[in-house]
Write a structure and sequence with these properties.
The strands form 3 sheets. Strands 2, 6, 7, 8, 9, 10, 11 and 12 form an 8-stranded mixed sheet that branches. Strands 1-5 form a two-stranded parallel sheet. Strands 3-4 form a two-stranded antiparallel ribbon. The radius of gyration is 16 Å and the shape is globular. It contains 7 helices and 12 strands. It has one domain: Rossmann fold. The longest helix is centred in the middle third of the chain and has 15 residues. Helix 1 crosses helix 4 and helix 3 runs parallel beside helix 4. The protein is of the alpha/beta class.
C-alpha cells in the first residue's frame, strides 16, 4: 500500500480505485430526463495526467462544485496514488476525477441526484481517456449517510473519504458518526469534510487538521 496521510497532520500519500456501476438506470434515461433541465459550465482538472482537462458541470445553482483553488490546495497536501478513494455528495465528480488524474486506482463516487449522475459518467470517461493505464470507477446513486452506514456490511472501506455536502445541510454529525460506526476508513485512513469557514464544526469528533480557503474550510479526521 502506498504512503498515506499520517495522523500527526504531516501529509504523505493517499490512494484511489474506480468501477462504473449505475444502479437501476441507464445513461439514455438520464439524457432524456435532463433534456432542457441541465445546462453546463466548465471546470478543469488542476493536476496529474489529465491536467487541463475540462469537466462539465450543471447550471443548477444548488450544485456548488469545489473551486479549482481549493482542489489544488487539497491535492497539494495529499497525494492519491494506489489506494481507495470515496467522493461523497460528489456533484459533478470533480474531486473524484482529480484523484483519478493523480494516479488513484480505486474511486467510488456517491451522488443521489439523478440528472447529475450522467455528468459524472461523462467526466469520468473524459479523464479516463487521458490516463496512461486503465483505472476502475464505481458510481453509486444513493444518499451519502445511508451509503456510509452500509459500508461495514458491504465490505466497503477506504483509505480516503472526501465529503462536500450542501453548505446549509445540518447532517454533518450523522455523516461522521456513520463513517466511524461502520469503520468506513481503513487503518490510518483520512476523512475530509468541506464546509463553510464560519460554520461550527460537528462536536462529536475532533479534527486532526483544519485548513481555510476564503469562505471554505477543510476538516481532516482520523478515527483510529
Amino acid at each position: 500500500m502506498a504512503h498515506r496521510a499520517n495522523r500527526s497532520g504531516l501529509w504523505a500519500h493517499v490512494h484511489i480505485k474506480i468501477c462504473t456501476c449505475l444502479e437501476g438506470t441507464t445513461a439514455d434515461y438520464f439524457f432524456a430526463g435532463s433534456r432542457g433541465v441541465v445546462s453546463f459550465h466548465t471546470m478543469r482538472i488542476v493536476g496529474g495526467h489529465a491536467r487541463g482537462c475540462t469537466l462539465a458541470g450543471p447550471g443548477n445553482k444548488k450544485i456548488r462544485p469545489t473551486p479549482d483553488k481549493v482542489r489544488q490546495a487539497l491535492f497539494n497536501m495529499i497525494e492519491v496514488e494506489g489506494d481507495s478513494f470515496c467522493d461523497l455528495f460528489a456533484g459533478t465528480g470533480a474531486i473524484g476525477c482529480e484523484a483519478l488524474s493523480r494516479g488513484a486506482v480505486s474511486v467510488t463516487i456517491v451522488e443521489h441526484h439523478l440528472p447529475t449522475v450522467v455528468i459524472i459518467r461523462q467526466n469520468i470517461e473524459k479523464v479516463s481517456k487521458m490516463l496512461p493505464t486503465p483505472a476502475q470507477t464505481r458510481v453509486v446513486k444513493q444518499d451519502a449517510v445511508e451509503f456510509l452506514r452500509g459500508c461495514g456490511q458491504a465490505g466497503n472501506r477506504f483509505d480516503f473519504i472526501y465529503c462536500d455536502p450542501p453548505y446549509d445541510w445540518d447532517g454533518r454529525s450523522a455523516l461522521l458518526t456513520a463513517a466511524h460506526n461502520a469503520r468506513a476508513l481503513l487503518p490510518d485512513g483520512i476523512f475530509i469534510l468541506e464546509m463553510p469557514a464560519k460554520s461550527l464544526q460537528p462536536p462529536e469528533f475532533e479534527p486532526i487538521k483544519e485548513k481555510r480557503y476564503g469562505d471554505t474550510k477543510l476538516l481532516f479526521y482520523s478515527f483510529g
